Q: What sequence folds into this?
């Protein structure tokens, strides 16, 4: 009878965290000058201080990796592979956003990216939930934050048309 769990689950957790934080690192490379650039932009009154973003994203990337690991462990479950593919694709869009916004100053393209990210992330939440409900729930804070970030992206782009052409 085939196993329903991977043989080395803790290595799997390390791998999913590594993948999640690798996406974070790719985005961070684009954000090296983010504080100076972001500080020069007109912000809405409800924008959090820039010091909030790092800790929030650290927690979210940890939750993302944990959620993916929970799904990965469900060998033989219908939809498992598709859910993990969605997860990886949304990570790519996640990392791309920082390049579009902070490195290349493309507010409109960054907004298009974050809308696509939100749609893929919502699909990932549903797919994860179908495979492992806790995994889907672990992504809900990420979905909430991306929703907030999309509104912030739109507003900052609209307030700074010359800087974020």
A:
């Amino acid at each position: 009878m085939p196993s329903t769990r991977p043989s080395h689950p803790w290595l799997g957790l390390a791998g999913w965290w590594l993948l999640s934080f690798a996406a974070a690192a790719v985005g961070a490379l684009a954000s090296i000058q983010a504080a100076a650039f972001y500080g020069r932009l007109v912000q809405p009154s409800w924008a959090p201080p820039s010091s909030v973003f790092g800790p929030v994203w650290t927690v979210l990337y940890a939750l993302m990796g944990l959620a993916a690991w929970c799904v990965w462990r469900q060998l033989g479950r219908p939809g498992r592979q598709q859910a993990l593919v969605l997860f990886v694709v949304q990570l790519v869009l996640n990392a791309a956003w920082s390049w579009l916004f902070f490195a290349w100053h493309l507010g409109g393209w960054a907004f298009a990216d974050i809308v696509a990210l939100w749609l893929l992330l919502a699909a990932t939440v549903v797919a994860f939930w179908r495979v492992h409900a806790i995994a889907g729930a672990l992504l809900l804070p990420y979905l909430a934050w991306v929703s907030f970030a999309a509104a912030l992206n739109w507003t900052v782009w609209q307030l700074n048309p010359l800087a974020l052409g």
Notes: The helical segments are 9-30, 34-40, 53-72, 80-103, 107-131, 133-138, 140-159.
